[in-house]
Amino acid sequence: MTVRDLPQDAPRPDPRRILVATTEKRTDERTVTALRHTRLARWPVIAVLGVLATPALAAGAAQDSALKGSGISKLSEDTRRLTVKADATAVTGAAEGRVSFAHHSPIGVSRFKGDVSCLQVAGSVAQISGRVSDGETASGVVLTGKQFAFTVRLGDEQAFSLPKFAADDAVRCGGGQATQVRVTGGGFKTR
After folding, report:
1. Which SS3 state, helix, strand or coil, does residue 38 take?
2. Strands 65-75 and 164-166
3. pLDDT score recorded for residue 55
4. Distance CA 4, CA 13 (A)
5. How much is the pLDDT for 52?
6. Which residue of 6, 89, 162, 168 has the fewest CB atoms within a 10 Å radius of its CB?
7. Taking phi first (over 0 means left), then psi (-120 to 50 degrees means alpha), and beta for anything else, what does residue 58 get?
8. CB of 126 within 8 A of CB of 152?
9. Total structural domains in the chain?
């Protein structure tokens, strides 16, 4: 409704107030329009990000992982201890860390220390491998320089495999032996 639409005998509004009201209305309309455009402009960006992220999420995108802890398996005169501190980066696939293993048995002590080169964690299973930096078996077999691999079962009832050894990369990113020993003390954590 404008001033022209008012009947002749109707009181006329102050022209200054009409100008202010009209200006406010235009400003409000511009503000609302600008907000609509700003909000709408965000949707394509959000949609593109969603499309790009969806395949990675659907494929179970790799995440950085870590395995830390010390598990002891004690059965009468036979004690095994595996200590691990390892981290893996999802982007590069690189892993680093240290492992130590000791097996005290009636025939002697087998032990080694090693550098981690691979760590894979999937659900409640972690596979870790690398190269022995120093070690030998109870019977005197030198392990230094060989590749090692372990499998660690995580969760409520943890266990770890006996180590698997190879002279080359045959055990790279693979698990240990099929035989596993139940963790009776300590334990492992992962992320």
Report:
1. helix
2. unpaired
3. 42
4. 11
5. 43
6. 168
7. alpha
8. yes
9. 2
The torsion angle over the Cα atoms of residues 54, 57, 62 and 67, rounded to 10 degrees, is: 150
Backbone angles phi, psi at 184, to 5 degrees: -105, -10
| Whole-angstrom distance, CA of residue 153 vs CA of residue 182 | 9
CA 106 to chain centre: 41
**Same domain assignment for residues 37 and 80:** no
Q: What is the pLDDT of residues 146-169, one digit of tens each?
A: 999 999 999 999 999 999 999 877
Q: How far apart are CA 150 and CA 91, in angstroms?
A: 23
Decide: helix, strand or coil at residue 68. strand
Statement to judge: residues 120 and 98 lie in one domain: yes
Q: What is the pLDDT of residue 174?
A: 80
Report the C-alpha gap between 164 and 178 in whole angstroms. 9
Domain boundary among 43, 58, 73: 58
User: Tokens 């790799």 belong to which residue?
Assistant: 62
On whether both 78 and 137 belong to a single domain, the answer is yes
Q: Residue 38 sits in which domain range?
A: 3-58
Q: Are residues 54 and 89 in the same domain?
A: no
What's the CA angle centered on 91, arms 89 and 97, to 5 degrees?
15
Average pLDDT over every residue of 23-36 = 56
